[in-house]
Each structure stands twice: as structure tokens, then as C-alpha cells.
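Why do we care about 3D structure at all? Because function follows from shape, and shape follows, mostly, from sequence. That is the central idea of this module. The next example makes it concrete: a single protein chain, its amino acid sequence, and then its structure expressed as C-alpha cells.
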Amino acid sequence: MAEKARTFRLTVAGRAAWESQDMAVPEDYRRILWLMDFHGQDGVVGELLRRYPRNVLDEWLTEMEDLGLIEASSEGLEGGSTFSTLEADRTLGLDQARMRRDGASASAALARTGAYISADRLSRRPAPRKPPADCVVLIVEDDPDQLALADLRVSMAGYKVRVAKSVNEFLHSMLDEGAPDLLLLDVILPDGNGFDLLSKMRRHAVLGSLPIVMLTAENQAEDIGKGLLLGADGYITKPYTKNILADVIRRVLKQVGAA
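And the structure:
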């Protein structure tokens, strides 16, 4: 008879530990909590087993459960350990009136200029002390042609480029190479949604202030308003020009020469 998997879900304390980067919780545990929250149940075990030996992972999970960071779920699956989140389908509870108002205003600006920047968010962010050549822009885009185009245009603007074709690749890039200076984020991704990713990033103590620009074909006022309400610094709709993209990146990063 196949052994039933241990199934866990993230607790409120566990989510708070990775969002606040609680230094009392070991870095590897915070990394596991991060993956659990972003991935949910599907695919997490494979990701973890590529990083940690099975016996080490099992001991860590037991200790994390003892610490109240994760808790056992009543669901059991055959095979290895699996995870689910405590609030997998959590409603964002967005202010619908504000979302419609901001969306309509930004939509009008996008129609005129091809881009919209949140002046309020930018006013609260200090300017980085880096020249463009030292700034890294991470592009999250699954369409090969659009990814190649964005890569070319960002490179032509003088920035370093990293790319990810999915939420999973984005997580690996963040874990292995650290945070970029700016994130260009599509909405429709093969294993997730850019708005969900944006929402989770904005809850993180360290990554909550990471400059994020939505670069997407989703151009309805409701979509634009949602992105801004969730904390996007800018919004660019496809198709776009290299000058629009370069200008938005410069302005969001508050670099010399930005309008």
C-alpha cells in the first residue's frame, strides 16, 4: 500500500514570517514558506527536492510544523509531501469604486501616451544611486516574441536584462540571483497571474518597495485600475515603442534625464 503523503498548509504565522523576513526564522525555512505561498499545492515538492535532500526536507518540515509555521492538512495524497495554502483563493477585497476611478483615469492617459505612471508611489520612493548600466530589469513574459522584443528594447535602453517565462522561473530567478532593480510583469502567465504575483510582492517587507511595471495586453480600465490598486508603479499596454518603455523605466527608477 502506497504511503500517504504528508500534506501541509501555510499558517498565518508562517506567512507573516516570510513577508516580514523574520530573522528569527532560518533563511531556508523562509525560502520554503515563500515557495509554499507562491506555488500553493502544485509543484512545490519537486522544486524543494531539487534544492534539499529528502531526509533533510522531512526533518525541516517537522520542525516548521512544531514552530507553528505550517500545519497538517486533512487531505492526503499518495507519494511525497505536498502543500496547500491556508488561503489559496483569498479574496483581495479591492476597493471597487477606487479601482474604477483610477482605471478610467489611467486608461485615458494610456490612450494618449501609451503608458501610465503612479506619481503617488514614485513620490514615496528614493532614487537609486546606480547608473542605468548597473541596473537589472527582470522581464516576466511567456510569449517568446514579446519576450525577445522586450529584452531587445530594455537592452537598447542601456539596462542589464534577466528574463523569466513563468511564475516558477521568476521565483527561481529571485531565489538564485536576488531581486532586480525593476520588474516588468505580464498579467497572463502559464502557471499564474501577474496581478496575484504583484499582490504577494507588495506584502513582503523587503520586496514590497521593488519597482514593478505591468507590461501587458490587458488594456481594459478595470484591469488597469486593479494593477494600480495592487501597487504597480507603472502600466504599459502592448503594442508599445522602445521610447515609451525606456522613458517609463527611467521615470520609475528616478534616473537623470527622466521627464
